[in-house]
Design goal:
The protein is mainly alpha-helical. The protein is built from nine helices and no strands.
């Protein structure tokens, strides 16, 4: 059975994802978690601390994923495919956390900072994949690595946002693989 702290965190994710940070109250979290407001304050100093805990855990796990991706492949070209598919799988496994950040990044400083870190880590990883691919001959030598990495990272954030908030899209089931194909066609060495 989950502890009250774990229940508070899980219910907070759901409420923040549905209502946003500003639309969620401690009273709602307490009611959904079947605890008192005082029980929440025993574990957390504020709603912001709950929010920041969700975001920090998500980003730590995300960073581990990206580090694993960079280490496990031989070809930079193949790394792009693994990066895209693994990132989509990661978001699929943690949709609430990503929604929490996306819903709040325009209004909450810590969410904006989290989005910048998310994007920065992703850009750094894509750049590493491209650099490796240029070295091993699988990626075109004439691409501007940092600029291309920024474009691909932006594309991936947008694709995952669309996958979360627009599930009615006609190509939803193939969107991750379509993104892989597009990116690989764009960078492939001839």
């Amino acid at each position: 059975m989950a502890s009250s702290k774990d229940l508070i965190l899980e219910n907070s994710k759901q409420l923040f994802a549905e209502n946003g940070f500003k639309g969620t109250t401690i009273a709602q979290i307490a009611k959904t978690s079947k605890v008192t407001d005082a029980a929440i304050y025993r574990h957390y100093k504020s709603k912001q601390q709950i929010f920041d805990g969700i975001v920090e855990t998500f980003l730590a796990d995300y960073r581990v994923l990206l580090d694993q991706i960079k280490e496990r492949q031989k070809s930079g070209y193949c790394l792009i495919e693994n990066l895209i598919l693994d990132l989509c799988g990661f978001i699929d496994g943690r949709p609430l956390e990503f929604k929490v950040i996306l819903n709040a990044y325009t209004t909450i400083t810590s969410a904006r900072e989290a989005m910048e870190l998310f994007y920065g880590y992703l850009t750094e990883t894509v750049a590493a994949c491209l650099t490796r691919g240029i070295k091993d001959g699988t990626v075109r030598e004439d691409i501007a690595v940092q600029e291309t990495a920024g474009v691909i990272a932006t594309l991936l954030v947008g694709v995952n946002r669309r996958r979360l908030f627009g599930p009615g899209s006609p190509n939803m089931g193939t969107m991750a693989q379509d993104t892989v194909t597009f990116c690989q066609r764009s960078i492939k060495s001839f």
